[in-house]
Amino acid sequence: MIRVLVPSGMLGSGFPAETVTRGIELGADAIVIDGGSTDSGPHYLGTGTPKTSEAAVRRDLRVLLIAARAADIPLIVSSCGTSGTDLGVDWVADLATSIAALEGLSFRLTKIYSEQSLSVLLSALDSGAIAPLAPLGPLDADTLRSCTHIVGVLGSEPISDALRDGAQVVLTGRATDTAPVAALAALHGLPAGPAWHAAKTTECGGQCTTNPLAGVLVEIDDTGFTVESLDPGSAATPTSVAAHMIYENADPFRMREPAGTLDTSRAGYRALDDRRVRVEGSLFEPAEQYTIKLEGSAVTGYETISLVGIRDPEILRELGAWTARLRAVLADRVSTLLGLDGSGYDFLVRRYGDNAVLGGLEPERSAPREVGVLVRVLASTQAVATSIAKIANPLLLHLPLSGMDHLPSFAFVTSPAEIERGAVHEFVLNHVVNVDKPDDLFRFEHSEVNHG
Questions:
Q1: Domain 299-428 = CATH 3.30.70.600
Q2: What is the pLDDT of residues 93-128, one digit of tens each?
């Protein structure tokens, strides 16, 4: 049996320090927290920068390091620096060592790097070892070369290896959200079914409870696992626990990992009391071939945006027609003034307040009272993107509907109206590479941090 404390869904998102204390008091054998995600898009991988502030990460890391060392239990931070690049791992490691110096902490540190060598991947591509995941097609060498950063998504085994070698603090590059908890369970010889299901359930801390901002303690044993909220005012319920298999997962009963597939179709969820849930019946199907998912981000252009508010009722009644006219008039002016046809740039309009999120899938349709129109121009250079946005400026300020006998007035949010966002990145890899051993594509660096 093992008890794992998961204080929140991401390092730097914040959590009540007292919930960590409560988890230690309840007998936590390890602390696990995710350091990143692809949820916020390709920019962070493309630039190798974190989405979280240094102050927030330092605060969370300080609380966890002090608690883990006082209890003499391991601390694992996965997907460091948001996207798990080598820069992200080193950034969190530097914060950890500086905290250790200030707080007088000592520990054995292992860094697991998951950023990939282009030459290694090109060789794997030539040998047929790389396959696409839907909806992408076969990979070509130019796509690999276009990436500013490529990471491999490690599974549980490299983390288990680091702990087996005596690591007390493990900082990893890009990993599956479930890998750290599953690694701890595997290290204690627990079955893969309960281990991976427990890991999936608790990957986001309290999101599997009635208070998403609190942490959880999960106890894994030979037949299943038990989840308990660390906030006395919240609870894990059968519904809240079962529902987490739907989160970021296409199939509510099956989830693919590097080593195989978790199957929860036979799992049962039972409330032990008004705060704890017991889960049993989960299975894990080992894969014939161990695979590592690749994530890569490339620059696809440069972006300039403008945001304008519209409250003219006549425009709002015919907003679709107004948007179509905006696109047509702008395309004509860009062609005339810059000599660019429609293939030379991308012009996107989002109407916030008018089904901007769901579009045609929106079930409830009603006339909006006001709408924020976001115009996004993507071009090969920043200068071209901004030039097109400037051409759009008077249209966004006064463009009438066809047949209107007056000029309407709209309100820009900023002055200048054009906001240059710089290089725009796009995820271009959604592929897996076959490996002989789980550690093949990853690098380990061990060190002693001595300030005790």
A1: yes
A2: 999 999 999 999 999 999 999 999 999 999 999 999
